[in-house]
Design goal:
Layout (H helix, E strand, L loop, with lengths): L12 H16 L5 E12 L9 E16 L9 E6 L4 E6 L14 H12 L10 E8 L9 H16 L9 H16 L6 H8 L4 E6 L5 E5 L7 E7 L10 H19 L13 H5 L7 H25 L7 H20 L4 H11 L4 E7 L6 E7 L3 H16 L4 E5 L6 E3 L1
Parallel strand pairs: 3-5
Antiparallel strand pairs: 1-2, 1-12, 2-5, 2-6, 3-4, 6-7, 8-10, 8-11, 9-10
Helix pairs in contact: 2-3, 2-4, 3-4, 3-5, 4-5, 6-8, 8-9, 10-11
Bound molecules: alpha-D-galactopyranose.
């Protein structure tokens, strides 16, 4: 990309792994036993549908958490985990026999502690059977950008703990691991998030997005086919950080549940029905009776599920119809508008970023991606238009907000793995 706000050229994973191994060696005086890796994600479409039993269509990206791991130091207290963040030179110590929330200054380790706790809760791995660990972690998933840096940390942790327990990654039930990592987030960290981020980080596939039915957890990989069409997947970070464990996200979830309860009553469906179980016609049937806020939230979710399935259809037929590319772009745009007006989770800076993208030649489509209240946009851009896109969007965004938009070009990669 040309000058402007592009993020610094990415160091290859190989280089990062080598540097991490070296830093581990220097710090602990011996080599790590293995490195566990897990990717962040961008969601192409299907936002805030996952905790409503609906469909999501995310991509695992070539930005990853890496964890170098060895057993405990000789003479360490049984169960002791010593974890160091390579980038921030921070250290935290906790014990697998006594998993508690970290003090505020070490809250970055709650995802690690929480996963150990959740695997135990789910009966997948008893953390007390592990002798302990030394971990050094490094991540190039932008934090607070809505790219699931925390889910990547959770999946990398889960794979590392299984590896320490002698269970090879290939034999694991990854859907169950994703569910346990979601439990870590919900029951330990305290963010009421859905299953999407952990699932894609565990199960992502190269060059593909995954259509996930978040109720049955059935999924299938759909090739993006972008390379054949000279298209690139670009995320633009608004530099407005987001956080889920407070406020808006949990509130949206409650509003969706309120709408689903109301619809279930009216249409005589089981009490535990979710918005997934209702059609737009059924929702429109209660307009004026259901309170306006839950009504709008439900309208977003129900129409978003339909847009997601439509998008999948287009990609699966390889953009075969002449209008497919423009329909794809329109669906992304409608998704954004629905998040802006009905779900009310966008912020003015993010709205500006998508508008700048929409006005830029060579942009197929753009929308906010992730939980909202800041974070990133996802853009599908013609490769030949990338330089101008990057320059123009960065400059105009800077002029209007004073903020530096960061650009990332992503490839779709495989989900978490162990590098021996
Ligand atoms: C966050 C959550 C996901 C999902 C998205 C919104 O990323 O972790 O479960 O709800 O927001 O689509």
């Amino acid at each position: 990309m040309g000058q402007g706000g592009e993020a610094p050229a990415q160091t290859t994973q190989e280089t990062r792994v080598a540097a991490l191994r070296q830093a581990f060696q220097e710090r602990f005086g011996e080599a790590p036993r293995f490195v566990s890796r897990a990717p962040g994600r961008v969601n192409l479409i299907g936002e805030h549908t996952d905790y409503n039993g609906g469909f999501v269509f995310p991509v695992a990206i070539n930005r990853t958490v890496l964890m170098a791991v060895a057993g405990p130091e000789a003479g360490a207290t049984p169960g002791e985990v010593r974890i160091i963040s390579k980038e921030y030179d921070r250290e935290s110590v906790f014990n697998l026999n006594n998993l508690e929330k970290a003090p505020e200054a070490e809250r970055w380790t709650n995802y690690v502690r929480g996963v150990a706790w959740a695997l135990g809760q789910r009966g997948l791995l008893d953390p007390a059977t592990l002798s302990g660990a030394r971990i050094m972690l490094e991540s190039d998933v932008p934090q607070g950008a809505g790219l699931s840096s925390s889910a990547a940390l959770e999946i990398a942790t889960a794979l590392a703990l299984f590896q320490l327990a002698g269970t090879p990654a290939a034999s694991l039930n990854r859907a169950k691991i994703a569910l346990a990592c979601q439990l870590a987030e919900n029951g330990f960290v305290g963010a009421n998030t859905g299953i999407m981020d952990q699932f894609i980080s565990a199960l992502g596939q190269p060059d593909s997005a995954l259509l996930i039915d978040t109720r049955s957890l059935e999924y299938r990989a759909v090739p993006l086919g972008f390379a054949d069409r000279g298209l690139k997947l670009v995320a633009v970070n608004s530099a407005v950080p987001h956080r889920h464990d407070t406020g808006g996200y949990n509130q949206r979830r409650a509003e969706c549940e309120e709408a689903a309860r109301y619809l279930a009553q009216v249409y005589g469906k089981p009490e535990n029905s979710q918005l997934r179980d209702f059609t737009l016609e059924q929702l429109l049937g209660v307009q004026g009776k259901l309170a306006p806020t839950p009504f709008k939230r439900a309208r977003h979710v129900i129409t978003e599920d339909a847009r997601t399935l439509k998008t999948v259809e287009i990609l699966e037929r390889g953009f075969a119809h002449e209008s497919d590319l423009s329909t794809f772009g329109r669906l992304l745009r409608e998704s954004h508008e629905s998040m802006r007006l009905d779900f009310e989770i966008t912020v003015p800076e993010v709205d500006l970023l998508v508008e700048l993208a929409w006005n830029q030649p060579g942009v197929v489509g753009a929308r906010m991606t992730g939980g909202g209240f800041g974070g990133c946009t996802v853009n599908v851009v013609e490769e030949k238009a990338l330089d101008a896109f990057s320059e123009q969007v960065w400059q105009k965004y800077r002029q209007e907000t004073g903020l530096d938009a960061r650009m990332y070009i992503f490839d779709a990669v495989e989900g978490g793995s162990i590098l021996e």
